[in-house]
Design a protein that fits this description.
3-stranded antiparallel beta sheet, mainly beta, 1 helix, 8 strands
């Protein structure tokens, strides 16, 4: 994401600004040294909207296997979590029961996955 930071001197009103890029995209395969970044999870929902009592189906794709959590969050914080484990192919499907208290517009589905380090990575 393109970002701009501005700093202003409150006494003189003189301001300076710097533009920079921050973030990461799923289609990037890793850093220059070949290490895969930890934020490369692709999360896909089976529908665009859900009603109370529905079950959301979530597909997660990862470059590697691992264990972690599937989360439902809002501006108020964590609403629901479930432990997950992705096999060697890095793909898994999970379900989220849609709670009647979630009739709001600020919900986010996210996932946290910790992949085991390889023997080579452990030695570095």
């Amino acid at each position: 994401m393109a970002t701009r930071i501005e700093v202003e001197d409150p006494l003189t009103g003189v301001m300076t600004a710097v533009r920079f890029w921050a973030g990461y995209r799923w289609d990037e395969s890793g850093t220059p040294n070949g290490v895969v970044r930890p934020d490369q999870l692709k999360i896909t929902l089976d529908r665009k909207a859900y009603s109370s009592g529905d079950t959301a189906r979530v597909r997660i794709e990862s470059p590697s296997a691992g264990k972690g959590y599937l989360l439902v969050e809002s501006l108020d914080g964590l609403l629901w979590k479930q432990p997950i484990e992705l096999p060697e192919n890095g793909q898994g499907e999970f379900t989220i029961p849609v709670d009647k208290k979630w009739q709001r517009h600020d919900l986010y589905v996210s996932a946290l996955l910790i992949r085991p380090a390889s023997q080579q990575e452990k030695k570095q």
